[in-house]
Design brief:
Molybdopterin biosynthesis moeA protein, domain 3; 4 domains; 407 residues; alpha/beta; Molybdenum Cofactor Biosythetic Enzyme, Chain A; 6-stranded mixed beta sheet; homodimer; elongated; 18% helix
């Protein structure tokens, strides 16, 4: 039997993972804490927009008909301030000074900006040299009540990821609390006896834990909270702790212990704990021994322990899965390869690149990094260009999907 | 005297603002709280990367010379686990099983993966059918100590905005605290007596406060904290409160009271308080009456109260200023106009657009919105395409700068 047989393609891995989305429910959030959350209800206009005939220029309000009849000079009856009830124009020979944001005074239907008039002794005179009479029209400089939206019309669709614009809209319509999508409970777990705490000085055969923190930061950037744990390469301890995490979390993200090593217990233990393997190994570099499985509604992503494998695995597989679970579209971004690049193995390759934008195009410049899989090589990179497995030569000017990890 | 004389162009406004950057100092932050902060020190490798000759495949370690001499079968002397001190290969006829992440045993110089050997009765036999002898080379499947970086070499440059990748690197080198750029103290202040609290039901001539919350969310998305205030259209109260805010904050962002209205006291009060006007009015729509000034190290952006004016002003003027102040490059993004668009007034126009990515290109689709300046129109938009003042016809396929406000 060919050992390569069970290795699936990246496309197959994505399809399997995306077929395993879950719903994590909804909860009520305060509007001002809802940035980046996913709206689980529609937001409708509580009243017309604008809510009243809204003055959009500082100047005078009057009757257009009076101008058409030849009146040029209007007595100022008073000032309509923003935030005050509508005044009434008592006489069509008069005008009322109006301020931007105020309600249009009753019995008026045009606002003439200060730039077009002169005011003297309580009288406003139209300065016809400053403008052409043709520019005057009914409701000029006024936004009519309901011009934008009628009361009850939909302003923000269910499923929208709340941005700063939506925060403003929620305030406008007086939404103080709203139903948003709940997030999965996520734990990120490292394994590997060579790992020590960040605060420790490693011995010459040890390194510090870093993968879980990089992953936690990816999640944080995308608005997700997570816990972390580290488990020793001991089968009994691993099994006990993982059993407990499967009870308490919706998603387990592992780093390490999925390869062929003597202490790579994870695939075995997960299956013993009833997590069904959906695949193990993907035709990709880095990250080939990636293991993915499900136990009822619990989802397990077990990435190999190489730091870049774990990092790119989280971006390529976990994030699109959680986004789809929450109902967010995963838009594919692409970039243009800025110079020829060769990659011999028949594996899908996540090429570490920096990005330059030029003429509305995103260009991907392959990093000179030695590709050891160490996170240190990512300090000068902005993303991973995704090069298909079936090819070995990639030409300058060709377009490929890209995963970006910087703001 | 021509009243238009003092209106400056968007380009001039940007230049004046960018000439007024400030330094807000530095402070010490915990590494795990530093996501999106700006590094104010270099981060160097505390030791070589990798820190030891690092096994990158599960398999056996041995001497390459032995294979070259024709040895095919090696007695397994023991297992080198990750996280254990280096074992010593006692006999060159032997091998040691090694696990990914472990230190290379002493007296070995090649790792042969499990896929290429068979193990029986404590002996490993090279399976020459599985591979070509040419594929064997000195240090195969091993990353030599210091291969990536030498101890003391620079890993992350001062001035880098910390992403998830840097969080991983900081953990790797054991950085628990680091010096980052401090942020300005920012307050966002609305004016306008037509505004009521979000929790209130507005009367028919009132609207709810929304601009300050949209701006606060923009700042939050970019990692900045801010306070908010609302001040009534009363000259005495305004002056008193603004005097106090000028003492307590580095940056004041205003929404409203900068136009020609009877209650637009802001330019006058700011000058009375010693804030020097650097400009008032920009040839743009929306947001023409934008006022900008300085008092020593305090910076005042006073945007007109129209919600979209305030919103786009914050994105176009404040954010690049604060980024430059912190030492971050402001990279101009561009997009391709997806259909012809006309805009008659000789003003720089911030056209509300949605974005589609296609073939590595960003396309900007003008929104049908009625352009009233209401935030509700932004729910379907992704950004503002920046159309120059001197033109009126813009053609499909042309490229313009773009301001994006969604993730």
């Amino acid at each position: 039997m060919n050992k390569q047989e069970n290795i699936i393609s990246v496309k197959e891995a994505v399809e399997i993972i995306q077929s395993q989305v879950e719903d994590f429910g909804e909860y009520i959030e305060g509007s001002f804490d809802s940035l980046h959350k996913i709206l689980a209800q529609n937001i409708v206009a509580d009243r017309d927009f604008p809510a009243y005939d809204n003055v959009r220029m500082d100047g005078i309000a009057l009757k257009l008909e009076s101008i058409q009849k030849g009146v040029k000079t209007f007595k100022i009856q008073g000032i309509q301030a923003a935030g005050s009830p509508a005044m009434l124009l008592e006489n069509e020979q008069n005008c009322i000074e109006v301020m931007t944001g105020s309600i249009l005074p009753k019995n008026t239907d045009i606002v003439i900006q200060y730039e077009w008039i002169s005011i003297k002794n309580g009288t406003a005179t139209l300065n016809f040299e400053a403008f052409d009479k043709q520019q005057l029209s009914y409701f000029k400089n006024i936004q009519a009540k309901g011009f934008d939206k009628k009361a009850g019309s939909e302003l923000i669709k269910k499923g929208t990821r709340i941005s700063s614009a939506e925060i403003g809209i929620l305030a406008t319509v007086g939404t103080q609390n709203l139903v948003v999508k709940d997030q999965p409970k996520i734990i990120i777990i490292s394994t590997g006896d060579e790992l020590v705490a960040v605060s420790e000085t490693p011995k010459n055969y040890q390194i510090r834990r870093s993968n879980v923190f990089a992953l936690q930061a990816i999640l944080q950037e995308n608005g997700f909270e997570s816990s972390t744990d580290h488990i020793a390469d001991n089968k009994i301890v691993l099994k006990e702790k993982i059993a407990s995490h499967l009870k308490n979390y919706d998603v387990l993200l592992f780093s390490g212990a999925v390869s062929k090593g003597k202490f790579d217990f994870l695939p075995e233990i997960l299956q013993e704990l009833g997590v069904k393997k959906l695949f193990h190994k993907v035709k990709q570099r880095p990250g080939k021994p990636f293991w993915f499985g499900k136990k009822e509604k619990k989802t397990v992503f077990a990435f190999p322990g190489n730091p870049v494998s774990t990092y790119v695995g989280c971006l390529k597989y976990f994030l699109p899965w959680v986004n789809k679970s929450l109902g967010i579209d995963n838009k594919t971004k692409t970039a243009i390869l800025a110079k020829d690049f060769d990659f011999k193995p028949k594996l899908y390759y996540f090429l570490s690149v920096s990005i330059e934008e030029k003429n509305g195009q995103r260009y991907a410049i392959p990093q000179k990094g030695k590709g050891s899989g160490d996170l240190a090589n990512l300090a000068n990179a902005d993303g991973f260009l995704e090069l298909p497995a079936e090819r070995t030569n990639f030409k300058k000017g060709e377009e490929f999907p890209i995963i970006l990890f910087r703001k």
